[in-house]
Design a protein that fits this description.
23% helix, alpha+beta, 2 domains, 2 helices, Lipocalin
Length: 191
C-alpha cells in the first residue's frame, strides 16, 4: 500500500511539474509570437518616410556607356497595421510608361529588412533582404534576379540611404564574378 501511495504521489508531482513547464513554455511562445507580430522601432523608421517623393533616376545600361536619365514619383504608405511599407512608383523610361509596386518591411524574427518589387516591365518578382547600419543610416539588401535576356541568375545588391529627412539615395548593383557594376541610382526628394 505504501508503495502504491508513493508511486501515486510521484506521478501527481510529475504531472504538476509538467503542467507548470507547459504553462511556462506557452507564456514564452506567446511572448515570442507577440514580439514577432508587433511593429517596433524599425517599422517606425520606415513610416517616417511616408509621403510622396520625386525621383531623379540614372540608369547605366552597359559599362562604359553614357547613362540614361529619367524622373518619377513614389508614394510611400504603411499598410497592414504599420507592419510594411508599400511604395507605388510611376516613371517613364525611353518614352515608355513605368509602374512598380514595392513592399518593404523589417522581419522582427530575422532582424533583417526585406523588399519585394514588381513592375510592368516584367512578370517576375525581385526579393531581397539585408541589415540596417545605424551609423550610416543605410539598409543594404541582396537578392537574386533572373536576367530576362539570358535566363541566368543575377546577384543583386541594393542600398537605401537616408541622407536627411527630405533626401534618400537608392543604388542598385549587379554582382557578376565577384565584381559589382552599378546599374541604377535614384535620388529621392520629399515633395
Amino acid at each position: 500500500m505504501k508503495k502504491t501511495t508513493t508511486l501515486f504521489l510521484l506521478a501527481c508531482i510529475s504531472l504538476i511539474s509538467m503542467g507548470n513547464r507547459a504553462k511556462a513554455q506557452d507564456a514564452d511562445a506567446m511572448k515570442k509570437m507577440t514580439d514577432f507580430m508587433t511593429p517596433g522601432e524599425m517599422q517606425k523608421m520606415l513610416a517616417a518616410a511616408n509621403g510622396k517623393w520625386s525621383e531623379d533616376i540614372t540608369l547605366w545600361m552597359a559599362p562604359g556607356q553614357p547613362p540614361s536619365k529619367s524622373t518619377g514619383i513614389v508614394d510611400y504608405k504603411m499598410i497592414l497595421g504599420g507592419r510594411y511599407q508599400q511604395g507605388n512608383i510611376t516613371a517613364s523610361f525611353n518614352g515608355m510608361p513605368y509602374e512598380a509596386v514595392s513592399i518593404t518591411g523589417y522581419d522582427n524574427m530575422k532582424k533583417l529588412f526585406f523588399s519585394s518589387y514588381v513592375d510592368n516591365m516584367g512578370t517576375g518578382v525581385l526579393n531581397m533582404e539585408g541589415p540596417y547600419d545605424a551609423a550610416t543610416k543605410t539598409i543594404t539588401l541582396t537578392g537574386i534576379e533572373l536576367d530576362p535576356m539570358t535566363g541566368k541568375e543575377m546577384k543583386m545588391r541594393e542600398t537605401l540611404k537616408m541622407v536627411d529627412d527630405h533626401t534618400e539615395v537608392t543604388a542598385m548593383y549587379d554582382i557578376t564574378g565577384g565584381k559589382e557594376t552599378k546599374l541604377m541610382e535614384i535620388i529621392l526628394k520629399l515633395m
